[in-house]
Design goal:
heterodimer, A: five-stranded parallel sheet, 10 helices, B: 281 residues, Rossmann fold, 2 domains, nine-stranded mixed sheet, two-stranded antiparallel ribbon, binds flavin-adenine dinucleotide, binds adenosine monophosphate
Amino acid sequence: MSEPAKTPTPAGRAATKKELPDHFKGYKHVWVFIEQERGQVHPVSWELLGAGRQLANKLKVDLAAVVIGPEGEATRQAAAEAFCYGADLAYVVADNLLTDYRNESYTKALTDVVNTYKPEILLLGATTLGRDLAGSVATTLLTGLTADCTALDVDADGSLAATRPTFGGSLMCTIYTLNYRPQMATVRPRVMPMPERVAREPGRIISHPLGLVEDDIVTKVLSFLPDRESAKSNLAYADVVVAGGLGLGSPENFQLVRQLASVLGAEYGCSRPLVQKGWVTSDRQIGQTGKTIRPKLYIAAGISGAIQHRVGVEGADLIVAINTDKNAPIFDFAHVGIITDAIRLLPALTEAFRARLSPHARDRIAS
Amino acid sequence: MHIVVCIKQVPDSAQIRVHPVTNTIMRQGVPTIINPYDLFALEAALELRDKFGGEVTVLTMGPPSAEDSLRKALTFGADRAVLLTDRFFAGADTLATTYALATAIRKIGDTYGAPDIIFTGKQTIDGDTAQVGPGIAKRLDLLQLTYVARIGALDLDARTIEAERRSEGGVQILRTRLPCLITMLEATNEIRRGAMKDALRAARATIVKWSAQDAGVEDIAKCGLRGSPTIVKKVFAPPPRAEKAALIDFGSRSPAEALIEDIFKRQPKLEAELVTLARGF
Ligand SMILES: Cc1cc2nc3c(=O)[nH]c(=O)nc-3n(C[C@H](O)[C@H](O)[C@H](O)COP(=O)(O)OP(=O)(O)OC[C@H]3O[C@@H](n4cnc5c(N)ncnc54)[C@H](O)[C@@H]3O)c2cc1C
Ligand SMILES: Nc1ncnc2c1ncn2[C@@H]1O[C@H](COP(=O)(O)O)[C@@H](O)[C@H]1O
């Protein structure tokens, strides 16, 4: 009984015969929550500024960044960067109680800024942090939240039209929050393209106090264990990705994918069944319930191209599919297809790339 | 100790088909299952109960047929099942869903003892928002621990709980106070098979069925479609790409050579970039 179970309702505010309640009429401008963890801004925040910029232009309003974090350089820097990715102004809540992400303090900070400065649209990344925060903030504000959107637009009457997959990705639906403000949406990393960074002087910055003391916050962070650098996959942000699916037939054959990836300096990934079978770890899964990728080159070997896989790879510049079945759905969205046995082609491809990209070739290209 | 686990009955979406002409979902004959993510929450709850004693109540909001999922949860070893079902709940988005579930959880507390922990899954496979857990927590003014990979020390006297929470770049070890709401990460445990005695008990058990009124809903306007700030404007199948993949015709060349030729023809700048990226020598 969550949103997609509803029967489609006619569109637009007109169809609901409801005026936006008066107390919401002053809600204006598009906001993007800038997510930082331990001094690192999550790139999804810049991607959202890119998407937010387009919405703000259409609505002819300002685009604001909301930066929440500890006092000091990292938070200041995050706010300054937001201007380079298109923000017109920034709201900053800086307090050392915000050093670690905690639901209570971050919810308080974000709801306070929203209630004070009243945005009409509020966007957050659908990361573990963003989803934890968005649900609490939307419920506190009693407004609508559309999670994991794949497209954002404003329609003729200025309402946010948020499109997301539903029913395990078999369908898409467009959702409106007509009579409440702000209209909230989350978007997964890599779903929106990264906007170009343009060096700019910081614009207007509005500071807002947190208004909490440590004793007000029940949850304590006992420690933080960062993921080992070597164990971290950069899959979502890689320029080249090689992935394998069930067509590879065995965990041993998955090595062929890793070898090709290694020669290309690429990241490797897989379809969901390989995770379920325990052949590959879950952080390597690509698709709706895994990572969304946007590489320049994506090579999929032995993957049928189910819709849940497709939604995670559609942003790739060039999709190459290797499959024995000419009717496999992956050929409906890949740019280049080769109908052949991946178990034989992958090693040949690895060798051919190795030769082509050898130091000797390096000189050839450089000259 | 009393633990409430929220589970949802969902269509087995691997088997959902979309009507090619009308673009509607063909639900007929699609089997339903317990949302797979909720089984990790249920198992975590059962493990805590086995260790510390107490009871596990499973709760679902759904159509009368959702009783099947509750009975299934009883076969795994849950002690009690509550079905929240009423036509007023139909069409609820996350905000209206959390209103109904939070009301029912209060009523469960009044009737069977206040819960110490409320579990939800990370997300559902049909709604897929991961927002219902945080929403319930907010409405009940509970502390929330989301994306929990492991539950650590639980001290029922001091009323504290420790947990490992997955964050983007690592794992946070958190301590908070009971009662709290936990959303459990997938693949953190494996649902038990369930004992024969539980299967027998489940078959005979009475499922507690509450209407909106029974559950103590005070404002019906906050439920279902009426209580939902979001509306679904349209549902559609993802548009196909205009053209199909260009198939490589490798003729007498080696397939690998032919493919690489084609890739670099389409992405002329890629070769130079790959040379910098490549490290396989
Ligand atoms: C709620 C939900 C969420 C999901 N989320 C995801 C997700 O995030 N990511 C994801 O990937 N899936 C996801 N799935 C699963 C998805 O529906 C498919 O089942 C899955 O993607 C199929 O994986 P596959 O292509 O590897 O396997 P298959 O569909 O079995 O395809 C194997 C392919 O390999 C080909 N093949 C066989 N032998 C060879 C060979 N020797 N050489 C070359 N090709 C060969 C076959 O022709 C076939 O096309 C999800 C499903 C559900 C219900
Ligand atoms: N109708 C429902 N009845 C009971 N629990 C639910 C219901 N909908 C969602 N939940 C719980 O909330 C979690 C997150 O759901 P969602 O926000 O839809 O992804 C699920 O894993 C369930 O534990």
